[in-house]
## 1
Amino acid sequence: MNSEPAEDRICLLCAEQQLPNGITRNGRFFCQTCDREWILEKRKIARIGKNILSSKEKTEFLLDNLSIFNSSMGLDELMQRFAELISVRLKRDKIAIFVTNLELGEIKLAYYSSRQKTLQRAIKRITLDYDLSYGILVETMAKGEPRFYKFADQSHPFYDFYSKLTGTKSQLVIPILYANTAVGMLTIDYDEEDYSDYFEDQEILQLVVGQFAVSLRNSLIFSKSENQSKNFRSLHTAALTLSQLYLNNHDEMIRMILLTLSGIVESSLTCLIERTSESSKAKIFRLYRDLENYQINTNTTMIEVELIDPLLQIKETITIDPSTSAYVESLGIEGKESMLFPLTLENGTNCVFILTKQESRFPNDEIEALNAFVSLARITMENANLYQNLSNKERLEKEIEIAKEIQSTLLPRNSPEAEGFSFGGFMVPARGIGGDYYDFILSPNRNELFICIGDVSGKGVAAGLVMATVRTILHSLVRVKDSPWEILNDINNYLYASYKEAMTPRFMSMILLRWNLITGEVQYSGAGHGNFYHYHADSKSLSVIETEGVILGIQPDISAFRNESKLRFDSGDTILLYTDGVTEARNADGIEFGESELKSNFFSFISLEPKNILEKIYSELKEFVKEQEQHDDITMVAVRKI
C-alpha cells in the first residue's frame, strides 16, 4: 500500500505541513495547526497564491487590525484604515463597507476603497432598502452568513447598475455581526465571475470582522451621540435667538425657523404652509439649502387653499412618502420621506411644517429634536402675534397661558404600559409655568423603565424652557446609555456649558431611577435632590432613601460626586418621589408641611392606588396651607409593583 509521507501534506490556510485528522468530502480536511477545515495540497513546498497569507503574514495582519481597533478614532477614519489594511494585505482593489440602520430599514454604503479615485467619489452615495427583494446582499445580512455570488445571477436592477459602475463580475459578502445582529457588511469586488481564491479571502477576513463589528458599533454610537449633542446646541441657540429677535418681522422669523429645522435634519428643502383664519389662500414659505456648496435661497408664494386643504386638515405629526401624495408633490417636494408637523395658533392660523429627506428616513433621535424645536417655534410664533396685537399686560398673561399649555404636553399624559405596575404623577406650578419635571420613559423592549423627578432653579418661562430642553436631552440619552449617573453627568455638561456665562445661571436637581421590570432591581443616582420613600409591603415599613450627588449646572466636572445605588422592589412595594415645593409649603404661621407630615400621609393612604395617594396628600397639603399663596412648584410621583 502506498502511503504519502506526512510532510507532503500542506494546509493552504496556515501553510504548515500537517497530516490531516481525516479527509472529508470534496477533498477537504481538518488541520490540527489552524483548527480549520481546509484544502489539502500534496506538495513538499507550500503553494502560496497571491491572496494566501503565510503564518507570519497572518499574524502581522491580525496585529495591524488590533492596533486599529484599540485606537481612538472617528467612524470615517476607522472604516478608511480597515479597508486600506485589507487592500494592502490581501492585495484587493475594490472594498466596500456598508452600515445597517434597522430603525430606518436601510443599508448605506459608508466607505468604498479603490485605487480609482474617480470611482471612489462616484459610488459614495449608494443606499439600499433592507428588503429581501434586493436579493443576495440583504439575504446575507438577514441570515448572518458569508456568501460568494455572481452578479449575472441577480435580478434586481441594483446589481446591473453596480456592475456597470465598478466593473464587478462577482463579489464576496461578509456580514459584520454584533450580538448576532448585522450592523453592516464587508464586500470584496472581483473582476472575474469564477474567482477561485475567494474562499481564502473569506477565511482570513472572518478572523478579524468580529472585532471590527465591536469597534464599528462603538463608533456608530459615538457618532449618534455627537449628532444629538449638535441638535441640543442647535435647540438651545435657536430658542435664545427666537425668543429675543424677529417678533416684529414675521417673514424673517419664519426664515430662521426653517433654517434651523433644515440644519437639524440636513434637508435641502424645508417648507411651511401658513393659512390665516378664514383666508381663501395659503402662504408657502420655502427654504432651499445646497448641502454641497453651503448656499441658501428662499421664496414665498400664494396658493389656493382648496389645492392643499387635506394638508391643512392634518391634526398630528405624520411621516409619508412624498411620491404618494399629490398635494405634497404639488409643492415641488421630492424625496424618500417627508415629515409633516401641524400646529394651530391661538388666533386661528393653521400651519404645517414639511421636512423632507432626499435619500434616507428620519431616525428617532432627529424626530425627538424636531418635535422639541417645533414646540419652541410655536411659542415664538405665538409671541410674535401677541407682540403685534396685545397690550403689555395682556401679552404677558397670554404668553404664560400658551407656554403652560405647551409645557403640560411635555409631561406624561398617560401612565406607561408596563404590566404589573401602577403609576401616579402630577405637577402644580406656582406661576402658571413650572420648573419642576417628572417623567416615565419605557424602553422599546418594555423591559426597563426610567423614572425621574427634578427641579430647575427659578420659576416662570425661563425655568420652563430649561425643563423642556432637559426633557428632550433625557429622552435621547436613555436610548444610548444605561447608567443613570452617566445620563446625569451629560445633563450637567449641557447646563453648565449653556448657562455658565448667562446673567441668570440655571441649575437643576434630579433623581433618576432605572427600573429593571424583569428582575425588580432598581438602580438610582441623585443630583442634589434629597430623599425619596420606599414602602415595604411585606414588613409594612417605610424606608427613607437618601440620594447624594451635586446640583447639576454648578460646576463643569461632577465626577467627584458620582453616586450609584441599587434597591430591590417586591410585590406590593411603593415608592414616592417629590420636590421641595411639597415639604417647604408654609401655612399662615410660617410652619412648613415638612417631611414628617409627608411620610405620615404617605403611610396613611398606602392602601390606595398611587394616583389616589398623591391626590390625598395634595388635599392634606392644601388643607394645611389654607389660603396661603403657593411659592414653589409642587410635584409628586408614586409607583407600585402590583
## 2
Amino acid sequence: MGFSQAFMIVKEKSWNRFSLSAKMNSLIIVLFVPIIIVYTYSNNVTFDVVSKELQESNTKQLTFLSSQIDSRINQMMDFSLVFSKDPNVRKFNGLGIWEDRYDRMQTRFVIQEKMMLQSGLTDVWPSRYAVYSQQNKDVISNYDKPTGYDENYLIQNMSGKWTYSDDGTDSSRKSKAFYWFHSDSIAPQGTLTGSDLVVEASFSSENIQNMLDTYKKGGQGDPFFYHKGETPILNRTADQKLTAELIGYLDKHSPDSSTQHVISLGHKNYLVSSVKSSYLEWYLVDVVPLDRILGPISVSRNLFYVSMLLLFVVGISASILLYQNVQRPIKKLIKGLRRVQRGDYSVRLHSEEHNEFSFLFYRFNDMSHQIQDLIENVFNEKIRAREATLKQLQAQINPHFLYNCLGYIINMAQMKDEEAVVSMAYNLSAYYRYTTRMERDTATLNDEVKLLVNYLDIQKLRNGRIEYHIDIPQEMLSYSIPRLLLQPIVENSVIHGVGKSYSSGEIRISGEISGGCCRVYIDDDGPGLSPEQQEALNRKMREPLQEEMGCGLWNTNQRLIHQFGNHSALHFTESPLGGFRTEIVWEIPAQEGHSLPTNLRGDTAYANDHC
C-alpha cells in the first residue's frame, strides 16, 4: 500500500471523527427535543385533567353543601306549615273565652315544647321558631325574643321570602338572622287580615358558619356565604385579606346561579366556584388556591425542565471537551497529513496536553522529519545527478553549433572578411572557454551577461536579423547566481522565438531590484505562446518532474529554488514586445557586493576567461 492510499484511508476515517462534535450536538438535540415535547404534552394533559377534576369535585362538594343548607331550610319551612295546622297552635290563636288560665299556660307549654324538640334535632343547625297570634296580640317562641308582639314588625317582614335582618332592635351582625314568616290565612301569602296566625322560622348566621367550617375541614377551599350589599358570612378561620379582595371582585362581577372562574389575586391564581341557594338567594362561594393544589405538578414540571437543562449543558460540555481533547487534535493531525501530502515535510505538530495525542504528534513529527530528510537526500542526489549531466553536456562540444560557426569562419575567410572571421573566432573561443570551466558552481551576474554577449554576437554574425539589448542595473551585476543560468533561456528565445519567424529578431534582457528580490526579464518578439500554454508551463514548474517533461527549464527553476529559497522561481508571461517573456526571480542574499558596469550592448563585452 502506497503513502497516498494510506493517507486516503486515514483521511476517510478521520473525516468521520471530524464531524463528531456536530453529530453529538445534533444527537443530543434530537434526543432531548422529543422527550421535552412528549413530557410537556403529558404534563399539560395531566394539568388539564387535574384542573378539570378539581373544578368538578369543587362544584359537586359546593352543590352538596348548598343542597344540605336548602334541605334544612326546607325542613324548617315544612315544619312551619305543619305546625301552623297543629291544634294547640290554632287553639292559641282562638278567643279562649271558656278556657281558664291553667289551660292557656298548658297550651303555651305544649307549643314551646314542640318548637324546642324541633329545634334540638341537630347541633349543627339549631332553628328558632315563634308563633304570632294576631287576634290575641301575643307571641310564643323557643328563644329569648328581645321584644314581644309587634304588629309593624310582622307587616314589614311578611314578604313570603327568606330575609336577612335583625330582630328589629339591634343592627349588629351578631343578632342578624334569616327569617321566614308563614300565615295560615286564606289571603295571599305576605298579607295579614287581622286575625291571622303567623309562624316565624329563623336561624342564625352561625348555622351557616357551622356548615362552612365543616365543609372547610374536608377540602382545600375557603368558603363563605355572599350576597351583594350584605356583609358576607365567613367561616371562622377565613383569610380576611383574601376574602376582602374576593368580595371586591364579586361586587364588580356578579356571579350567576352556578359559575366557576380562575382569577388572579396577589399574583396567585384561585379557582372561585359559586352556587346559588334556592331559598335564600345568597351565593355559596368557595375559593381554592390553585397554586397550592396544582403547585406540585408545576414544581415537578420545572424540576424536569431544570434537569433536562442540566443534562443538556452536561451533554454540550462533554461535546465541547470531546472536541477540544479529541476532535481538534485529530483535525490538527489531518491538517498535518494534508500538508505532507502536498509535499510540505517541514510541518511539525505540537500539543500542550500530555495524552495519547501528544505521543501521536511526537511520532508524526519524527516521521515527518525522517521523510523530509529522506526526500531532501533523494532530491539532492537528483540535483547532483542533473548537475553532473549538465556539466557533462557543458564539457561536450555541440558539434552542430561548432560546425556552423567553423563553416561561417571558412566562408568569411574565403570572402576575405577578416573582421568577421576574427569576431567569430574571438567570441567562439570566449564562449567555449567559459562553458567548459567547471571549477565553481556559481558566477557573478556580470560574468553571465558577458557570456550572453558572446553567444548573442555569435548568433548575430550568423543571423543578421538578430538585435539584442541588455539593460541590467549596476548593483545587480555583482550578485552571484548559478553558472549557465541565463544562457539556456536566451538560447530558447533565439531558437523558438526569433528562429521561428522571419519578421522577428529582437531580444531584450533587462533587470530590476524590487521587494527584496532580483528580477531579470528575457523578452523576444517571436510568435510566443497562448495563455493556456503559458499557464500549463507555469504549472509544470511547480509540479514534480515527470518523464514526458523536458528537464531544461524545470532544472533551471529547481537550481534557483535550491540556492535562493522557495520564493525564487521562473515565471512565463507575454512579452511587451509581443512575443514570449521569461522572468527570473531570486531573493537577494545578505552581504552581496555591488560594483560592476551596466548597459551592455552587442560587441561591447566578452566572457571572463579567468572566472
## 3
Amino acid sequence: MLQILLVDDERSVVETLAETIPWESCGISTVHEALSGAVALEIMENHDIDIVITDIRMPEMSGIDLITTIHEKWPHVQTILLSGFADFEYAKQAMAQESFDYLLKPVSDEDLIETVQRLVDRIKQKWETAASYQRALHAFQDNLPLLQSTMLHELLTGKTYSPSALADKLELLELPYSIGEELGMLVIRMEEHLSEMGDHDLSLMQYAISNIISEVMQHHFHIWHTRDVHDYLVVLVSVKKGAVQSMNKEEKPQTLLEHYAAQIQTNVQLYLKGAISISVSHWGKFPYEIGAIYEGAVRSMRKRMGQAQGLFITASDDKDVHPLPAIRSLYNPPTLISLLEAGRFDAVEQKIEVIFEELLESGQHHDIAETTIEVYHALAGAFAYIIHKNGKQISSVLPAETYKYFQAPVYATAQQLKDWSIRTLYSISEDAEQELKDNHSTIVRSVKSFVDQHLASDVSLPAIAEHVHLHPVYLSKVYKTETGEALTAYVYRLRMEKAAYYLRSSSAKVFEIAELVGYNNTAYFIRVFKKFYDLTPQEYRENLPV
C-alpha cells in the first residue's frame, strides 16, 4: 500500500479530499495533509511518500516550485497538479517537471480516483520491473560470498534443512557439497595485533587470511568459510573430485589438511605479520555432523590452547572422552529469548516440544537428571527475562501454582517440567495479549477525545498521530483493527453527525455550522454533507419533523 500527500493552502480542500475519496480502494494506505509547500517538504523528509497531489496557486511556494524540489530530492515520487486556472502555461510547466497529470478544480471524485488509480498502477508496474529476474540475478551475484558465509554460519548454529531444500540451496549458492559427503574443518583464532583491530579492519584481515587459505589449498580442497560468534574464522573443506588420485599413497585427506594448516599459519606470520592459532577438526558427514565437528574444534581451542598464542592442534591430539551432550535445541536459533521478544508464542511452544523430545532421547544413553537441570534453568531464565523486560514481576503475571517453580522447583519428571513450561508460556502469552488490548483501547480513547475537542481545527492524521506519539501508519492500523473503521472515515462521520446535530438543535446558519465542524469553505461543506446524507444541510433541516 502507498502513501499520498495532499497539499493546498485551503484546509477545507485538503480535508475534504482526505475524507471523501476512498483511498484504500485506490491502493493508498496513509493520507498526509499539508497547508503549504514548506510543511509538505517537512512531511516528505519524515515519511515515505509515493504520490503528491498539490494545488498550483499557493503563497510563498507554488505547486510548480514544490514539485520541482520534490523531483530533485525524491525523483521516485509521482506528482499530480490541481489548479482552478485553465491556463495552458501551467499545464506546460507541469509537463516540463514531469508531473503525472494536471487537473482543473473543482475536480470530480471520479476524475481524481481514475487519475490516482492509473498512477498507482504505474508505480506498481515500476516495482515489478525493479524486481525483475535480471536485476535480482545481478544483486544475487554481488552478494554471493556473503550469502554463502551466512548459510555456513546458520548450519554451525543448528539451522536444519530438508534434504531437498538443502540440495536446492547448495546449488543456488554454487557450493560444491553434497549430503553425506566427508568434510573437515579448520577453526582459526587471530592473535597479537590482529585480534585488536577494529571490526572493519578485522573483516579485511579475515578476507586476507581466506585468500591465503584458498591459495594454499585450492588444488586439493573446496573451501567454504565464515566468521563465528567468537570472531573465529571457520573453514569447511571437502576433497575435490580427482584430487584423491593425485595424492601420494601415504597421504590421506586428514594428513594433507594438517599439512596445509601448518603452511597457512606460517604464511600468515610471514605475509600479514601476525600470529594465528589453528584447531584442525576430525572429519564428519555433511551436514549432519557439522555442529559436532565445530563444537569439538572450538572446545579443543578453549581447553588445549587457553590464552596461549600461535598454537596448532589437531583432532588426533584430543584424547578427551565424549562429553555429556548438551540439549542443543535449547541454544539453536531462534532462541527462546528471541522468540519471546518477538511475541511468537506458537513458535515458543513448538520449540519447547523439540527441547523435551531431545531431552527424552538423550535419556536413552545418559542419566537425564543433569540435562533436566540445564533445561529447567534455561526455560526459567528465558521466562523471567521476558517478564522483567516487560516491566512486571513474575508473581504478578503467573498464578501462584506456576510461580512456586521459580522459588523452589518441584518437578519429579521431565513431563512435569514440560507441563509447567507450557502453563508458564500460556500465562505470559495471555498477559501480553491483554496488555496489547489495553494499550490499543487507550490509544482509541485518546484519539476520539482529541478529535472531539479539536473538530473545528486540525484533526488530520499527522496531527492526531503527533498527539498520541505514534507513527501515522501504525496509528491507522491500530485504530482500524480496534474499531473496524478507518480513522479518516471516523473523523468524516463525526463531522457529519455533529453537523446534523447542530442543524437539528440550533438555529445557527449553515456557514456557522460548517466552521464548527472544521470546514472554512461552506461550498465544500455542503458538498460533503450531501455526499454523506444525500441531502444538502438546508434540505436536511427542512425535512426535520415539526
